[in-house]
Amino acid sequence: MCGIVGLVSSQRSPGELRSCVRSMSDLLVHRGPDDEGFWDYDGVYLGIRRLSILDINGGHQPIISETKNVIIFNGEIYNYLELRKELEASGVFFKTKTDTEVLLAAYE
Q: Which residue of 26, 34, 41, 74 is 20 to 30 Å from 1, comparing CA positions?
């Protein structure tokens, strides 16, 4: 099970928010010991601790699409392989083998 953290603020400095999100993420290492990732933009700071289930080596999050949409996801999409095939048939190219990237592509 992964752990997701985040903050939104226009009152604190970017450095302070980044540090706080990293500290929060460190407290969740037991939920996601395999990987960590961070993303920030315009006062929004997100972090994830990942327990690797699918695409163990290539499934780093957050995933950022070509159109700059960002996803951090903790869950499982059981039919992601079927969805992936449909999306690939419509011209979508995938960089990972994760259900998270399929979810982002389906959203777009």
A: 41
Q: How far apart are CA 28 and CA 22, in angstroms?
A: 10
Run of H or E including 35 = strand 35-41
Q: Which residues contact 11 (CB under 8 A, 6 or more apart)?
A: none
- Return d(Cα 78, Cα 60) in angstroms, integer: 19
| Integer CA distances (angstroms), 33 to 29, 38, 48, 98, in order | 5, 15, 10, 18
pTM summary value: 0.86
Q: Report the catalytic residues.
A: 2
